Amino acid sequence: MYRLPTRRSLVGISALRQHYLTPTCVRNQRYFGHSSSVLSKTSDKDDNFVSPNVLVKENQGMEGEDKQVSMDKASKGPLLSDNKYEYGVKLPAWQEKIGEVVTSVFRLDVDRIRAGPIAGSLYYGYCKEQGLIQKDPTTGELTKTASYWYETLGLEPTFATWFQITLLHTWILFVRMRAMPFKYGKNYQQKLVDRFFSDMEIRLTNEMNITSGRIRDQYLKEFHTQLRGAVLGYDEGFSTDDLTLAYAVWRNLFNAKTEVDYVALESVVRYIRMQLYVLSKMSDREFGFGKFAFVSPDEVVYRLTEQEEKLLKERVYQEFESDPSKMTISNRSKLSLDN
Amino acid sequence: MSNLKSLGTSLLNKINHLPKERLNYSISFKESQYERFRTLAGAPKKYVIKQKKPSVKEIIFRRLKPQDISIRPEEFSEKLSPENLKQMIHSLDNLSSNKFAQYYKVGDKLMKPSGYPDYYQRLMGEIQGTNRESWFSAFRTVVFGK
């Protein structure tokens, strides 16, 4: 059967991104990824190549003080669920065999089935953990992504802010899902948003202690309205210009706060454009198989040269189509490797 | 202080040249930022900014903020430094020049997505009012999903 997403993969970076897309940005190091890139000849060398996180830290904002987020507010529940299969436990071989037989006999569309574990579990996990207040297992401190949103950008560490951060990442994935074939893209979007709201309901009950179903439903309806408004604003910004995108970010993520730091707005716009660029360079198959992971705010994405794009494509073909005869039924796919 | 004022004037000029939002939102970025910085540049009041409803906490503990959102003169040196203002002007320039959209070009793959090829054209047509959805096309979208 298809591989279930593992807990480890939620914090890992895919090999492709590591090698080609995001050389880690070291503070103050103006590193040009590709000497042949057009940008390296024409760019403004002062600020082009710093990560969104460094951009804000180097240009201290209005308040001029570091916010510290208390770990008392750390999320207490599991990242996804109590189901062991969401954390890398593999099915026994005999169950996998049965799954293969059923898929083959009933000619099930595996690309549709894959939407559940990939969009509803793996990708939702990525979106959720970005703004989740939790300890980094290696350092014991706040995770890098949460530190960026709450400490560097100074957003209020509340449930509503977590919702807005998760929503922003969900929208980024929506943009790529729209570029998949209609029936698959729609299915991926549906699974992602379904999981988002079912998880919110669980968090509202267990962590916010809202036990009344009626009140919970009211909150969910309110959040749904916010989702529709935010998607409209982000879509408008994406299809027009950076300034419109910044307006949308200010209105949603920064809650239309008057005392906003423009450096923070610029940083978030840069962050969003970086993610969308990486997604635009991924084929449907890679994306559909869960090979995407969000670029950390500490990293920088450089434009790829034509040669690098070619190399990337070759690598992807090698990974997915090296030996089709050995491929299990559940690993076959109709998703394109070229789009 | 004079340095702050000249930077404030320059920032206010840039804010004045920002385009307004296409949709009619309850609070506009341009208007709220103009009102925020106008005292720094000594400019007159121009817009009425709607105040957000106070939260329950604010009502209970009387933490209601004053109606005027502009920075008061006595707060200038406390809240702003010339460096901050320079950075903010620089960021606003970067956003206005569409720098990141041009650098991270995504191409037709995402702008005309194969699942919904005219998604963004329809959206912008509706927002700008140039190509409004008809009753029939809206119904078709609801039934077939695109």
UniProtKB/TrEMBL annotation, chain A:
GO cellular component: mitochondrion
Residues in Ubiquinol-cytochrome c chaperone domain copies: 151-294
Gene Ontology annotations of biological process type: mitochondrial respiratory chain complex III assembly
InterPro entries: Ubiq_cyt_c_chap, Ubiqinol_cyt_c_chaperone_CPB3
Family the entry assigns: Belongs to the CBP3 family.
Protein name as annotated: Cbp3 protein
Organism (species): Saccharomycopsis crataegensis
UniProtKB/TrEMBL annotation, chain B:
Gene Ontology biological-process entries: mitochondrial respiratory chain complex III assembly
Source domain of life: Eukaryota
Example GO molecular function: ribosome binding
Record-linked InterPro entries: Cbp6
Signal peptide: none
GO cellular component annotations of the record: Cbp3p-Cbp6 complex
Pfam families: UQCC2_CBP6 (PF20180)
Protein name from the UniProt record: Cbp6 protein
Organism: Saccharomycopsis crataegensis
Classification lineage: Eukaryota, Fungi, Dikarya, Ascomycota, Saccharomycotina
